[in-house]
């Protein structure tokens, strides 16, 4: 696909508030208290910890890695933003409480007035979706970004499921394709325990998007049609443990990035691979999850490719602590943290040389891509 074809639509994009200017003093970590779903205890009827995002932020504050003043506050995606991917028909269907109850797998929602469902359930999900779109632009600008929420990989343009009402991964990529010069190829590395059938359906015939998906082959959603979009498919057995898992993560993430050189990596970092997760069926330790994220970020850093991470699934109370520990480890390893405060003369990474090398590689990578497209 030519550069001209890739960039079609950039000039005709709708006005959005999500691509705002972010101060250089902010880390590219995106969050808003509205991410957390609390409504008369109904959120407890689903195994998902609907307050885990706030807990992650709390742990990162306790460790003095972030403050309220140096993280990016997410904005809610508007209907115009959502229509970049979603059909009007699908968004109208979300105005029926029974539809939202089915998508979120919380049956009592069907008895509630839709205005309450919109405010207490869908607004948090729209805010997380806005956060993923914002983090996509930040990743390009800063080399990396983390949305502490998002990762709704079971939702496609015209249908939701598995607690996923909005296709935030598809939206983030399409926003970048439409609005950011030089971004015309993306690689999705989906390491949630479940198959990411939503973004797979959306990008089924789109050669600009390379999808690697590594998941438990025996669990939801088992979407054979969507699997046709996966360029690197890694199907795991029940109870897969650290050693085998981490070998496959390294082998296939390296292989995916060697096969196609993307302009952005979208990393769906679900923690439902954790041993004991009621829905994941795998047996990965907390240390294994931390190491997994390090492997993916290190592969991106080595090649100078910007990376966007979202947190996706995870159905145990302890997953918030693990996500926080993983982010702290990425910082300790010098894989994140330095560039955001560079403009203020502050370096907070463990190895300044590595960080400078990383951003040199990003610049070289962009020049090479521009040369290829020319």
UniProtKB/TrEMBL annotation:
An example molecular function term from Gene Ontology annotations: histone deacetylase activity, hydrolytic mechanism
Catalytic reaction equation(s): N(6)-acetyl-L-lysyl-[histone] + H2O = L-lysyl-[histone] + acetate
Domain of life of the organism encoding this protein: Eukaryota
Quote the InterPro entries the UniProt record gives: HDAC_classIV, HDACs, His_deacetylse_dom, His_deacetylse_dom_sf, Ureohydrolase_dom_sf
Sorted alphabetically, the keyword list is: Chromatin regulator, Hydrolase, Nucleus, Repressor, Transcription, Transcription regulation
Q: Does the keyword Transcription regulation apply?
A: yes
Instruction: List the subcellular locations.
Output: Nucleus
Query: Under which main EC class is this enzyme filed?
Result: hydrolase
Q: Which terms under GO biological process does the entry name?
A: epigenetic regulation of gene expression
**What is the E.C. number?**
3.5.1.98
By its UniProt entry, which Gene3D superfamilies does this protein fall under? Histone deacetylase domain
User: What sequence ranges are listed for the domain Histone deacetylase?
Assistant: 46-326
According to its UniProt entry, what is the function of this protein? Answer: Responsible for the deacetylation of lysine residues on the N-terminal part of the core histones (H2A, H2B, H3 and H4). Histone deacetylation gives a tag for epigenetic repression and plays an important role in transcriptional regulation, cell cycle progression and developmental events. Histone deacetylases act via the formation of large multiprotein complexes.
Q: Which family does it belong to?
A: Belongs to the histone deacetylase family.
Q: What is this protein called?
A: Histone deacetylase 11
